[in-house]
Automatic annotation (TrEMBL):
One of its GO terms (molecular function) is transcription cis-regulatory region binding. Pfam families: LacI (PF00356), Peripla_BP_3 (PF13377). Signal peptide: none annotated. This is LacI family transcriptional regulator. It comes from the Bacteria. PANTHER family: HTH-TYPE TRANSCRIPTIONAL REGULATOR GALS, LACI-RELATED TRANSCRIPTIONAL REPRESSOR. CDD domains: HTH_LacI (cd01392), PBP1_LacI_sugar_binding-like (cd06267). Keywords: DNA-binding, Transcription, Transcription regulation. InterPro entries: HTH_LacI, LacI/GalR-like_sensor, Lambda_DNA-bd_dom_sf, Peripla_BP_I. Residues 5-59 form the HTH lacI-type domain.
Amino acid sequence: MVQNPTLEDVARAAGVSRATASRAIRGAGKVSSAAQELVDRAVKDLGYVPNSAARSLVTRETGAVALVVAEPDERIFSDPFFGAAIAGVVEALGPTDKQLILAMRTRNGGDERLERYLGNQQVDGVVVISHHDNDQFLAVLRERAVPTVLVGRPARPDAGMPYVDLDNRLGGRLAAEHLIEQGCTRLATITGPLDMPAAQDRLQGWREGLEAAGIEEVAMSEGDFTPRTGRLGAQELLATGERIDGVFAASDMMALTALQEFEEYGLRVPHDIRVVGFDDSAMAEDSHPPLTTVTNPARAMTGEATRLLLALIKGEEVEEPIVLTPSVLARESSGA
C-alpha cells in the first residue's frame, strides 16, 4: 500500500483524471456511476484521507456550521427544547461532511466573543435559535455576509435573513380558545421574555383569543421560559387577589412549576384552576396531572433551517419564510 496516498495516487489507481477523482471524493456530482465506483474502491484500497485543509483553500469553506443559541449555558442544558433543536441540526447535517459547532452567549449576556468568532470566517454558515431584540451579533453576521438562517422570525422586518418559525400567534390563540372551551372566564398568563419575538407573538395571539370571546385578561406576569419564573409568575398571579380559573404559561417549563405552586397554595388542578403550557416537552405528558400544551416542533424547525442553510452555502436561492402550524394536545391539567 502507498504510504500517505495523494489524490494523484487515487486517480491513477482508479484510471480516471485527477479532476474526476476530486469530484467523486467531494460528492460534487457530474461523475458517472462507474467512475464513482472506481474512485470509491481506490480510496478504500489506498486508505486515502482527503486533505480538508487543502480543500478549504480551494472552496473557501471551513467544513463547519455553527448553531448559535442566544442563551447562557445553564438554560440550554436544562430546557429540553434545546436538546430537540440540536438533534434537528445533527440529523440534517448527517448526509453531509459538515461538522456542527455549538456556540452560546456568556453568562453575563455579552456577545463580544460570539461576534469575534462568527465574524472571522470560522464557519461556513450559522443557524440561530432563541434570539432577542437586542442581539448585536446578528448585525455582525449580516455585515460580514455570513450565510445565516434564523429559527423564529427576526425582530426587525428588514433583517434580511431567511427564517423558519412556528405560528406562535396562532399557538397563543389556540391556548386561549381551549381554556375558554373548558369553561374558564377568569384568565391570566405567564409570558415569555417580551424582548423575544416568539413570546411577543404568543402573548398577542392569547389576547386576540380572549378579545374574540369578549373576555378580559385578569392578570399577567412576565417570565423568561424557565422553571424559576414559572413559580414566581404563579406567586405574582396569586398575589393579585383576583379569582383566576385558567392560566396559560408560554412554556412547559414555566407551566409545570406554576402548576406545582398552585397546588402548594391549595388550588386543585384542574378542579380549581386549569393550566396550559407551550412546547410539548417530554415532561408535560409525565407530569401530575399531565399537562395540556401547545406543540412546538423544535427538531423539525431546526432541521428545516439547516437544510435552508446548506442551500445558502451552495449559493442557491431559498424559499422563506417557512412557518409551521401548532396544535393543542389536551390533557388533564386543563380538564380535558
